[in-house]
Amino acid sequence: MSTQDYMNTSVQEPPLDYSFRNIQVIQDLLSEEPRKGQRPLKHSKSGKSLTQSLWLNNNVLNDLRGFNHVISQLLQHPENLAWIDLSFNDLPSIDPVLTTLFNLSVLYLHGNSIQRLGEVNKLAILPRLRSLTLHGNPMEEEKGYSGVTKADRTAAEVWKRMNIKPKKVRIKQDAL
Questions:
Q1: Of the chain's two ends, which shows fewer C-beta atoms within 10 Å, N or C?
Q2: Is the pTM for the entire model greater than 0.85?
């Protein structure tokens, strides 16, 4: 990997966008043209995309078989994949392949067919995962499922202010 390629690999790059393409299997990505965005995608000398974001939302995927093979053909640095949008597909579970993407920080899975709340436990291994959406899946009906509301966020912020003491600022004697 050249330093230049690594420098160009960025979350700020536009996503590789295959949304609304009626994609049924991951291999379809190899023959389908990604959507054109406001800014052009940057590519390596080998022709692979330098983005860290992959949008596959609003398709008809029901599994992710062959995912690693396909993204290694599309992305110069698939190991840097940070954002995947798989919302509004027909995924019945959280595919284990997602647990191998250790730089994943944003994962959208809302509007799928995920039945079991326990599926979410698979994602605990991802150290950088910061944003996960799951609403609109059948698991919402399972006891123990809870979405985070604005009221929840407000209550957490109040609790934080009441319970976490701010660090004391120490003034150096020299400065006086």
A1: C
A2: no
